[in-house]
Amino acid sequence: MSIIDNFNLIKQNVNSLKTDVVLKNDINIVVVTKTIPSDKFFPLININHCHFGENRVQEAKLKWQNIKKNYKNIKLHLLGKLQSNKVDDAYEIFDFIHSLDSKKLALKIFENEKNFKKQIAIFIQINTGKEQQKAGIAIEDTKDFVDFCKEDLKLNVIGLMCIPPVSSEPTEHFLILKDLASKCNLAELSMGMSNDYIKAIKNGSTYVRIGSAIFGERTK
């Protein structure tokens, strides 16, 4: 199957869920293009898909800067960890950040918003699995951190994001995130990838991050 066929199959699955599950919000498919050359994902741009995701700031700038100049409808999502020394570069190219995970980074973003006079849509990453090696705000600190970002810094926080532990059933983490978002009065949820996006949507996801189901497994 071609990349377009794979993408259309995912769209069909998403649309079928809309009829089976009561969904309040639209479902946005973020096509993950990390390590994928532009000639591979350009067919999706040509059929007017607009949401794409990258993990690294420098790779995104090299691949997307010229494309975004010519295709104004494209929305680029930063999905990987954002280092505070890369925030300036991120603001030049990205429209969404899915990985706000510390006060230090929030303050750096706040400084940039004043300098660039531009607001980026932000998801706060929550460490739902309480994994020491994984970034993210602790579950019990979520409400205070959201309030700090939205009320004190006036950041455009639109939702929460999580990456469930590989060894866990993802549904329990999706439910945790959904509950936290409700308590924080946030409408958007970034959760679900190629192997679990259907479960994520059934549990309230509004942004699913899909790469390998479209492009195949990436080579190391």
Summarize the structure.
This protein is α/β, with parallel strands linked by helices and 220 residues long.
Structural notes for this entry:
The protein is an alpha/beta fold and 220 residues long. It is 44% helix and 16% strand. Strands 7-6-5-4-3-2-1-8 form an eight-stranded parallel β-sheet. The longest helix is centred in the first third of the chain and has 18 residues, at 3-20. It is globular. The mean pLDDT is 92.
Strands, count:
8
- What form results from the Cα inertia axes? globular
The CATH superfamily title:
Alanine racemase
Quick one: biggest sheet? Answer: 8 strands, parallel
| Topology-level CATH name | TIM Barrel
Helix content: 40-55%
Q: Helix- and strand-based class?
A: alpha/beta
CATH class: Alpha Beta
The run of helices and strands is HEHEHEHEHEHEHEHEH
The CATH architecture comes to: Alpha-Beta Barrel
- Euclidean distance between termini CA atoms: 22 Å
Q: Work out the strand percent.
A: 15-25%
Low-confidence residue ranges = none
Mean pLDDT: 92
The strand order across the widest sheet is 7-6-5-4-3-2-1-8
Number of individual domains: 1
> Radius of gyration in whole Å, from Cα?
17 Å
